[in-house]
Design a protein that fits this description.
Layout lengths: L1 H12 L36 E4 L8 E7 L7 E10 L3 E4 L7 E10 L2 E2 L6 E4 L12 H4 L3 E6 L6 H10 L2 E4 L5 H4 L9 H13 L2 E9 L5 H4 L5 H18 L6 E6 L13 H6 L3 H12 L4 E6 L6 H17 L5 E9 L5 H12 L4 E10 L11 H19 L6 E6 L9 H5 L16 H9 L2
Parallel strand pairs: 8-9, 8-15, 9-10, 10-11, 11-12, 12-13, 13-14, 14-15
Antiparallel strand pairs: 1-4, 2-3, 2-5, 5-6, 5-7
The chain binds (3S,4R)-3-hydroxy-2-oxopiperidin-4-yl beta-D-xylopyranoside.
The site of (3S,4R)-3-hydroxy-2-oxopiperidin-4-yl beta-D-xylopyranoside has 7 residues, from loops.
Length: 451
């Protein structure tokens, strides 16, 4: 109160005691104007509360808040009918779960009251911690997948996986360094456990990845036999693995990340050195020979942001199609950021795949909220940007031709488990769930993208 009185005295001293807000006035008889607040979209939504704020209104010494169950504000939520509050932010609490509420606010100054603000609405989440509406897999008309680790196929992880997803990709346990750790010793312990879990629970498995330069076992990198022996060993590894999971693994990334980031050229690898530039097509043919029904993909990163790389990879795939080398789809790893790439760029890069009549997989989706490492905690604003980017990705995918739809795979469940923490070495929050298993705005963004 003291502060307000002093403030009024000061204003009085410069000769304009009752004018507030943006309107000009040249006389003391002019009616006073107090601007109405402009509310932002509510955030921090829980099953029983949400937070709403607005920029401070010059001259206001408080605000009146209305919360109703209808947009016309006839059915007020007690006690939120003109409830008085001194600051330009407010937490509405004691609400019902899974219910839509409408909020409006007025500025006040002594006995002056502004017009109503804009009306914002919000739906509280349901009591189990999930959002109202469908789980991701039910809301989507395509497969929704997640990268998993075998030791986390239980407890709360399992609960969320079974609720939200209908497909899994093994994050690293179906790569060559794990499945073929030493010469003559194929080890399917972890891949079997993963695939069996999925089969028992009715989820599809996307196999990832038979050949990847970054998951090549040391003994293969240092292979001591002839080139022919090397090629025979790779053929045997691919055919044994694909045959083992025939009918259980729906699709495979056969070769992963074969192209350099710049120059549109093939990456060098032990496979290329020992088997020649056509090592890739050999691997695709062996996969198809082992399982005529499995869907086979080429998968790579920076496909939206690096057009030269994308064109090189797509030219390879076109050439496969022309020459009858088996291939069914293309995976765009979607390791992206909250501010990049644009929706338009994602859209046109996706079209280049679907124009070829191939399946398109948005594989490995994670959206960095902190690419410049300027945050120590995930701010509401950045979480909103991230939500928007996830929404855009899903909107683009949802709009591709039906015959090209395969699925979107999210690269992990929750922020504290993302591979990006180690990869970039600084904090980030790129996934759909918080460390405590509560869902994020990004999760809402996924659902919004399907509307
Ligand atoms: C990453 C996994 O997330 C990590 O757990 C693992 O240690 C290394 O590989 N591109 C790919 C994925 O195709 O297989 C990578 O996954 C991430 C980049």
């Amino acid at each position: 109160m003291h502060i307000i009185l002093i403030r009024l005295l000061v204003i009085g001293a410069i000769g304009s005691p009752i004018l507030f807000g943006a309107c000009e006035s040249d006389g003391a008889d002019e009616p006073a104007v107090l601007m109405a607040p402009n509310l932002s979209a509510p955030t921090e939504v829980t099953a029983s509360s949400f937070f709403v704020d607005w920029p401070f209104i010059e001259g206001a010494d408080g605000y009146q808040i209305d919360v109703a169950r209808d947009e016309a504000f006839t059915d007020f939520v007690e006690p939120y009918q003109g409830i008085r509050h001194n600051f330009s932010e407010f937490t509405v609490s004691d609400l019902e779960p899974a219910t839509t509420y409408y909020v409006r606010v007025r500025s006040i100054s002594r006995d002056l009251v502004s017009d109503n603000s804009n009306v914002v609405s919000v739906t509280t989440i349901n009591a189990s911690g999930s959002e109202p509406g469908s789980p991701l897999k039910d809301a989507a008309e395509f497969s929704v997948g997640m990268a998993v680790q075998v030791n986390k196929l239980n407890g709360q992880h399992q609960e969320i996986l079974l609720r939200e997803y209908d497909q899994i990709t093994s994050e690293y346990e179906m790569k060559m360094n794990i499945m073929y750790p030493s010469e003559g010793n194929l080890d399917f312990t972890q891949s079997d456990a993963t695939v069996n879990w999925a089969v028992e629970n009715g989820l599809d498995v996307h196999g990832h990845a038979l050949i990847w330069h970054n998951a090549t076992p040391t003994w293969v990198e240092e292979f001591s036999g002839t080139d022919q022996e090397f090629e025979t060993m790779i053929e045997d590894y691919i055919k044994t693995t694909v045959t083992r999971y025939k009918g259980k693994v729906k699709s495979w990334d056969v070769v992963n990340e074969a192209f350099e980031d710049v120059g549109g050229v093939l990456r060098n690898s032990v496979f290329r050195e020992k088997m020649g530039d056509d090592y890739i097509e050999k691997c695709y043919r062996w996969t198809r020979e082992a399982d005529p029904d499995v869907l086979i993909f080429y998968n790579d990163y920076n496909m939206v942001t690096h057009p030269v790389k994308r064109t090189a990879a797509l030219n390879m795939v076109k050439d496969f199609l022309d020459r009858g080398v088996p291939i069914d789809g293309f995976g765009y790893q979607m390791h992206i950021s909250h501010d990049n790439p644009s929706k338009e760029a994602i859209e046109s890069a996706a079209k280049e795949v679907t124009d070829l009549g191939l399946l398109l997989h948005f594989s490995e989706l994670d959206v960095r909220a902190n690419p410049a490492n300027d945050l120590e905690v995930l701010t509401i604003q950045r979480a909103n940007y991230q939500q928007n980017k996830v929404r855009e990705v899903v909107e683009v995918y949802n709009a591709i031709p039906e015959e090209s739809k395969f699925g979107i795979t999210i690269w992990g469940m929750k922020d504290d488990e993302t591979w990006l923490l180690e990869f970039w070495g600084h904090p980030d929050w790129p996934l759909l769930y918080n460390a405590d298993f509560s869902f994020k705005r990004a999760h809402t963004g996924f659902l919004e993208g399907l509307e």
